[in-house]
Design goal:
By secondary structure, the protein is mostly beta strands. A six-stranded mixed beta sheet has the order 2-10-9-4-5-6, with no helix packed on it. Strand 5 and strand 6 form a beta hairpin. The longest helix has 4 residues.
Length: 115
């Protein structure tokens, strides 16, 4: 049974930082590009960062320079370091494959940036 579990979200002030984690099954992570997604209230879920198995990463412009995606293949874990957070970053954050068919979505982790 494939599953993804996100954690690390919380409430932070603008300019603060959070580090998100995602743990999944080996069959999801092995040789797959992985990605972080987020869904803000009233908006569609969008992909914000991807990382290939070998480490090449890409970001959408809105988070580039502030967020860093990384992975630990040995432990089937994906990370997202988020710095200089803005209120516009408020959303539920999810992980999944970046290419191909999605694995079942996890519950996500809530990130709220507010003063």
């Amino acid at each position: 049974q494939a599953r993804l579990v996100e954690s690390g979200g919380g409430l932070v002030q603008p300019g603060g930082s959070l580090r998100l984690s995602c743990v999944g099954s080996r069959d999801i992570f092995t040789f797959n590009t992985m990605a972080w997604y987020r869904q803000a209230p009233g908006k569609q879920r969008v992909q914000i960062a991807t990382i290939a198995h070998y480490g090449s990463a890409n970001y959408v412009d809105s988070v580039k320079g502030r967020f860093t995606i990384s992975r630990d293949n040995a432990n089937n874990t994906l990370f997202l370091q988020m710095n200089s957070l803005k209120p516009e970053d408020t959303a539920v954050y999810y992980c999944n494959k970046g290419l191909g068919e999605f694995a079942p979505w996890g519950q996500g982790t809530q990130v709220t940036v507010s003063s």
